[in-house]
Amino acid sequence: MNHLLELLQPKNVLFGFKAASKEEVISKLVEHLVSTGSIASEVTGNIIQSLLTREKSMSTGIGSGVAIPHCSVAEVSEVQCAMAVSPEGIEFAALDSQLVNIFILLIVPKQKFQDHIKTLALIAKTLNIPEEREKIIKANSFEEISSALKPSL
User: Fold this and answer.
1) In which band, very low, low, confident or very high, does the pLDDT at 2 lie, cut at 50, 70 and 90?
2) Alpha-carbon distance 22 to 125, whole Å?
3) DSSP collapsed to 3 states, the chain
4) Residue 9 pLDDT > 80, yes or no?
5) pLDDT for 63-95, tens place per residue?
6) How confident is the model over 99-112, as a mean pLDDT?
7) What is the pTM assigned to this prediction?
């Protein structure tokens, strides 16, 4: 995989996202993956717990308005990804203490740990460009996000 767009499906991108806390962000994103059939509802609790445990060790709010909550679990067989865009920003205990506007949730199969590391690096690199982040925050459709991300190919 060479590009974030290979992971994202239009059905798993949320615009105008709102949440009151880090826990609510994570719960809403996981529940969205359940609602779109990306993950089974019976594994929701385990996945949310894995994500929150990961957050306790160190925030996945990497700075510059970006957070990449992620975990590696046995309950999925393929990488699952959801993106949420919050133009106002949400408190997420980011490393730079700024509000987070772009959330990319990653759930990776336990047996694909190398993919996990590569995918995280790819996302961080993709969202490292301020102009691209701005376009994503202003986007109202998957097409707009897609065109914002394409220049990094």
Assistant:
1) low
2) 23
3) CCCHHHCCCHHHEECCCCCCCHHHHHHHHHHHHHHCCCCCHHHHHHHHHHHHHHHHHCCCEEECCEECCEEEECCCCCCEEEEEEEEEEECCCCCCCCCEEEEEEEEEEHHHHHHHHHHHHHHHHHCCCHHHHHHHHHCCCHHHHHHHHHHHC
4) yes
5) 999 999 999 999 999 989 999 999 999 999 999
6) 93
7) 0.93
Phi then psi dihedrals of residue 79, to 5 deg? -60, 130
Whether pLDDT at 104 is above 90: yes
Q: Residue 75 burial (CB < 10 Å; 0-12/13-18/19+)?
A: middle
The CA distance from 145 to 150, in Å, is 9
Domains of the chain: 4-152 (3.40.930.10)
For residue 81, the number of C-alpha atoms closer than 13 Å in the C-beta half-sphere is 19
When the pLDDT of each residue in the chain is averaged and rounded to a whole number, the result is 91
Q: What angle do CA 127, 128, 131 make, to 5 degrees?
A: 80
